[in-house]
Amino acid sequence: MRFVSTKDLKPGMLLANNLYDNNEITLLKANTPLNQFYIDRIDKLEYEGVYIFEDGDVEKARQIVSDETRLKAIKHLKKLDIDACIFLANSIVNEIRNADSLIIEQKAICSHDNYTYVHSVNVDILSVIIGIGMGLSNSELEKLSQSALLHDIGKCDIPLEILNKPAKLSKEEYEEMMKHPWYGLSRLREKEKTGDEISAVIKNAVYSHHENWDGTGYPRGIAGTDIHEFARIIHVADVYDALTTKRAYKNAMNPADAIEYLMANAGIMFDIKVVNTFLLYIAPYPIGCTVLLSNGQQGVVIENNEKYLSRPKVKLSNGKVIDMMKKLDITILNILV
After folding, report:
1. H or E stretch covering 332
2. Which of these, 176, 16, 45, 171, lies nearest to 113 by C-alpha position?
3. Which tops the pLDDT comparison, 165 or 219?
4. What is the per-residue DSSP string for 26-43?
5. Strongest mean pLDDT among 60-64, 66-70, 139-143
6. What is the CATH number of domain 2-53?
7. DSSP label at 232?
8. Is 295 exposed, middle or buried (0-12, 13-18, 19+ CB in 10 A)?
9. What percent of the chain has pLDDT over 70?
10. Residue 215 gets which letter from DSSP?
11. Residue 94 above 80 pLDDT?
12. The pLDDT value given to residue 250
């Protein structure tokens, strides 16, 4: 399986994952051979790229959370159905706890218009995985999952021309964007007026997920352990997913560089303990990415070593597989695609 940028797709390539349009309707199913019409549809929806099968591939990529659950979450978020989101967040915890592996080793892909909702689901999944690594109880994981799924609900009150602006925000626009934690908290408080109690922990995490460890964040500028643990976890997951996703105003950062960003800002923006836990589960070289090796050769990552995620197995164009746990004199210099 290989990740291919949309601009490099060719008719005849075999799709490895299901793709969905902006209404969560199946656009193409896995194992569909691509033609020019399909490629044009993928490009129109502004997918950064897709996974395709290589010769010899027989199975779809492993999923930690099913497409069905992801699509339900997106629909509930679009409808601002907070009750349904809270219920589904618990299902996400169950799916993750029952997964064969918690290693994140695929690039996240989504259409342009669905970014905000797909991002919230991705942040939920990443947050729960971090929470498991930090030893949170099941009830704590459920509250964390609910908080993470709803963390950006305040963005529904931000004008679309600001959310989707394909350029740097003006000072006034950025100040409006910074209000979304408050808008999110307000949404949850409004929900409580209907008689539904929302946990104080969830409200705190939604309101505080942009606070930085050193006190330079917003909206309150609190620091360290004054920031709720859930907010500190969501902050790391939120920034990682934002960095590694293509947006109208920026290209996606590759996972290895995003990990470097998190490590460089541990103890500044982020809780060091949260970052260190996250690093145990995130593959810097996702399955299917094309990499440049220190010996000058290029290859595709086909398998990760769960104990040493920076040393995967790489398949060269000639079919030879290099196990980097056995070839210690070879390193990965860069992710090419």
Report:
1. strand 332-335
2. 45
3. 219
4. EEE-TTPBP-HHHHHHHH
5. 139-143
6. 3.90.105.10
7. H
8. exposed
9. 96
10. S
11. yes
12. 80
* Tokens found for residue 74: 């997106």
Segments of 203-319 assigned E as strands: 290-293, 298-303, 313-316
For residue 292, name the pLDDT band (cuts at 50, 70, 90).
very high
- 77 touches 38 (CB < 8 A): no
Beta bridge partner(s), residue 301: 314
Cβ-proximal residues to 287 (8 Å cutoff; 6+ apart), any chain: 1, 61, 105, 106, 301, 302, 303, 304
Strand 290-293, strand 49-53: pairing: unpaired
Nearest-angstrom CA–CA distance, 305 and 300: 15
Q: What local confidence, expressed as pLDDT, does residue 115 receive?
A: 80
Six-digit token string for 128? 């729960």
Phi, psi of 300 (to 5 degrees): -110, 130
Furthest-apart CA atoms within the chain: distance in Å: 64
Q: Which class is 67-279 in CATH? A: mainly alpha
| Cβ proximity of 310 and 284 under 8 Å | yes
Q: Give the span between the Cα atoms of 39 and 67, in whole angstroms.
A: 21
Q: Is the pLDDT of residue 110 over 80?
A: no
The lowest-confidence range among 6-10, 115-119, 218-222, 275-279 is 115-119
Contact present, 158 and 180 (Cβ < 8 Å): yes
Length of the chain equals 337
Q: Can you give the residue ranges of every domain in the chain? A: 2-53, 67-279, 290-335
Torsion of CA 114, 180, 264, 281, to 10 degrees: -50
Amino acid at 322: I
